[in-house]
């Protein structure tokens, strides 16, 4: 499904057609290990599943570049042993396929550079493609950096919604699309919030929980695009979902 002109939803990522660029967000590699250190036992399948999903997406849209939009690793102030190994495993997989890799730094990534630097991967604070700006989404962007920008793609939020049917309820990852009008802009910029690519992280229920990203302050007006079993469903605006 096309969520914006020239931009398709592919799984829980985005594909920018003209640039042949695949954008995925919030891998949080090492999340399993962090849970285990807290005494929560979970099976270690995260990285294999990430690579499996990436394989499907790459075979489908054939990108030439993959952009990892923030929070590639999970832990803030240290590097877990498994994080080091598994981050390199994902990068090695992509480089074996001759993909150019760019990483937009997220708030979980202050000490990611020593790892990705081993493979010569470029890290940036933002990435610009024509009228589209890609940032992690944990901080606002200064007005001066928005010249000629019409669209901002963000991560950080891990958007999801809880859907109830009778006595059953289930959380689904979703994309959000809406407008951001701060900073004295004459016209609101389009915002696209992308869910977490990590299969273990269901996300924040945007119908009930407080949002994290400052770009989503008027979230009730955002459109919801739910991802389920390889299909995408437009649920309308947040304020109307569940009525």
Beta fraction:
25-35%
Specify the overall morphology.
globular
Number of domains: 1
CATH class: Alpha Beta
Number of strands: 16
Estimate the helix proportion, in percent. 10-25%
CATH architecture: 4-Layer Sandwich
- For the terminal residues, how far apart are their CA atoms? 25 Å
Low-pLDDT sequence parts: none
Main sheet? 9 strands, mixed
| Rounded average pLDDT | 90
The sequence of SSEs as H and E is: EEEEHHEHEHEEEEEEEEEE
What is the fold-level CATH name, i.e. the topology? Purple Acid Phosphatase, chain A, domain 2
Question: How would you characterize the overall build of this protein?
Answer:
Helices cover 18% and strands 33% of the residues. It is built from 4 helices and 16 strands. The relative contact order is 0.16. It has one domain (2-240): 4-Layer Sandwich (Purple Acid Phosphatase, chain A, domain 2), CATH 3.60.21. It has 243 residues and is of the alpha/beta class. Residues 20-215 form the Calcineurin-like phosphoesterase domain.
Q: What's the gist of this structure?
A:
The chain is built from 4 helices and 16 strands.
